[in-house]
Recover the amino acids of this structure.
C-alpha cells in the first residue's frame, strides 16, 4: 500500500517511522515533511492546509491510506474532502474536530454528558467577562474559543494580567473574532491519554506526559512541549480504567449521539486532581511530542489500526512494549519567543537511539534548523531512569550552537523514586 502522511514535524516523523515498520506499506509520502522524514519517506512540497492539492495528489498517486497529523489540516476540512472523493483517510471530520477547535463546544458536550471537567462560563462581552472574573478567586483560567496554536490559554495570577488577556481575546481580536471560556482553576499532575477512536470503538494508547514550560523546574513560558515520557508511575490502573470508561469512551459515545461521530485520535489532556481525574482539554489528533514516545512502544502494525479505524471496522487489540521511552526536545534559543533559523546541525550520525526531526531542512549537503522546536531525541530502557540516561547521552552528541533543551524531563516520575 502507498501511504500519505500530512504534516512536517516530530509527530509526523514518528508516524512515518511507525508506518515504515509495517510490512503492508510499500511506499510513504509525506507532505510537506522535513529533512529527517526525507530519509524514510518521499517528501512532497504541498502545505498541510492545501486540501485540494493533497486530495488530487492522493488520487493521482493511488494512495491507499492518508494519515493526518496537524489540527490545521483537520480544521481546513481535509478529511471531508478526501471522503467526498472516496479516498481513505485517518482523522476526524471538520465537524468532529470542534472538540479541539472550539473550547465552548467541548465544554458544553462535557457538561451535557457528565464528563468530569472544570466548571466554566463562556463570554463574548469584555465587561461581562471582567465582572465575572472580579467576583472569583485568582488565578483565573482564560481560554480563547478557537485554534490559537497553544497560545489561547492564559492562567492569570493577577487581575491586571486577567484584564490584559481578556482585552487581547475579546477587544483587540488578536486571534480573530471569538468568545472566551473562563474556567475554575484545578491543580494536580497532568497527563495525556490518546485513543484511536472510530465511532463507539475506543482503543487506548499508553499514557504519556508532556512538559509544556520552556525551562527546567517547569519554569518559563508555555511552549508546544519540551519533552515527554511513558509510562507514568503516578497514574494507577484504577485511574486509567476510570479515564478510559468515564472520559474517553463517554466522549466517543457523546460525539456519536450528537451526530458527529469521531474517527481518528482523540487526545484527552487530563489532570489528576484531589477530586479525581478531570479533562483539561481535548485534541482531535495525535499529541506532539507525546506521539514521539508513545508510538515507539507500539508493537502492533499501525497500518492495520489506521485502516480499521478509517473503515469503521473492528481492530485487533493493540500490543504495547513494556520498555520506557523518554524524549527531549532540542529547541532554537529564544523559543517560544523569536529565534533564528538556519543553524547547521552536526553529530546526528553518532546518535544511538532514535531522533525525530521537528523543524529541520536540507541546505545543500547540510541539515539546518528551520523551526522553534528542532529535534526530538528518544531514549529507551527497562526503566525511565535508563531511558533518560540514553536520551541525555544522545542529546550530548548533537552539535549545534543555536539549540537548548531541558535536562529534567520525567522529573514527576523521578521525584517519588
Ligand atoms: P490547554 O491548552 O487547555 O491544555 O491549557 C494549557 C495549559 O494550561 C494546561 O496544560 C494546564 O497546565 C493549564 N490549564 C488549563 N486549564 C486549566 C485549569 N482549569 N486549571 C488549571 N490549569 C489549567
Ligand atoms: N503536547 C500537547 C499537544 O499536542 O497539544
Amino acid at each position: 500500500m502507498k501511504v500519505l502522511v500530512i504534516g512536517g514535524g516530530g509527530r509526523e516523523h514518528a508516524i512515518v517511522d511507525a508506518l515504515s515498520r509495517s510490512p503492508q506499506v510499500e511506499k510513504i509520502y509525506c507532505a510537506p515533511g522535513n529533512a529527517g522524514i526525507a530519509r524514510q519517506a518521499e517528501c512532497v512540497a504541498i502545505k498541510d492546509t492545501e486540501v485540494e492539492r493533497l486530495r488530487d495528489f492522493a488520487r493521482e498517486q493511488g494512495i491507499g491510506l492518508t494519515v493526518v497529523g496537524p489540527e490545521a489540516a483537520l480544521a481546513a476540512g481535509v478529511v471531508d474532502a478526501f471522503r467526498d472523493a472516496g479516498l481513505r483517510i485517518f482523522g476526524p471530520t471538520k465537524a468532529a474536530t470542534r472538540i479541539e477547535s472550539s473550547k465552548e463546544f467541548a465544554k458544553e458536550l462535557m457538561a451535557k454528558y457528565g464528563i468530569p471537567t472544570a466548571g466554566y462560563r463562556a463570554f463574548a462581552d469584555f465587561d461581562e467577562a471582567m465582572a465575572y472574573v472580579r467576583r472569583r478567586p485568582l488565578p483565573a483560567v482564560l481560554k480563547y474559543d478557537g485554534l490559537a496554536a497553544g497560545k489561547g490559554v492564559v492562567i492569570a495570577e493577577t487581575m491586571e494580567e486577567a484584564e490584559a488577556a481578556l482585552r487581547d481575546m475579546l477587544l483587540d481580536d488578536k486571534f480573530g473574532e471569538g468568545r472566551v471560556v473562563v474556567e475554575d482553576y484545578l491543580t494536580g499532575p497532568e497527563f495525556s491519554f490518546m485513543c484511536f477512536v472510530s465511532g463507539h470503538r475506543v482503543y487506548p494508547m499508553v499514557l504519556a506526559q508532556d512538559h509544556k514550560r520552556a525551562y527546567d523546574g517547569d519554569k518559563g513560558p508555555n511552549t508546544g512541549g519540551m519533552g515527554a515520557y511513558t509510562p507514568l508511575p503516578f497514574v494507577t490502573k484504577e485511574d486509567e480504567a476510570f479515564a478510559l470508561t468515564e472520559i474517553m469512551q463517554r466522549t466517543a459515545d457523546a460525539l456519536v449521539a450528537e451526530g458527529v461521530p469521531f474517527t481518528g485520535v482523540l487526545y484527552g489532556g487530563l489532570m489528576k486532581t484531589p477530586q479525581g481525574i478531570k479533562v483539561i482539554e481535548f485534541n482531535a489528533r495525535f499529541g506532539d511530542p507525546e506521539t514521539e514516545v508513545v508510538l515507539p512502544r507500539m508493537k502492533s502494525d499501525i497500518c492495520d489500526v489506521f485502516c480499521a479505524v478509517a473503515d469503521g471496522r473492528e481492530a485487533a487489540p493493540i500490543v504495547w512494549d513494556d520498555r520506557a521511552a523518554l524524549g527531549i526536545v532540542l529547541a532554537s534559543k529564544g523559543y517560544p519567543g523569536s529565534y533564528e533559523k538556519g543553524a547547521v546541525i552536526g553529530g546526528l550520525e553518532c546518535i544511538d537511539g532514535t531522533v525525530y526531526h521537528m523543524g529541520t531542512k536540507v541546505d545543500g549537503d547540510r541539515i539546518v534548523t528551520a523551526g522553534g522546536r528542532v529535534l526530538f531525541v528518544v531514549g529507551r530502557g527497562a526503566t525511565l531512569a535508563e531511558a533518560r540516561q540514553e536520551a541525555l547521552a544522545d542529546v550530548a552528541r548533537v552539535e549545534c550552537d543555536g539549540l537548548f533543551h531541558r535536562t529534567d524531563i520525567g522529573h514527576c516520575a523521578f521525584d517519588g523514586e
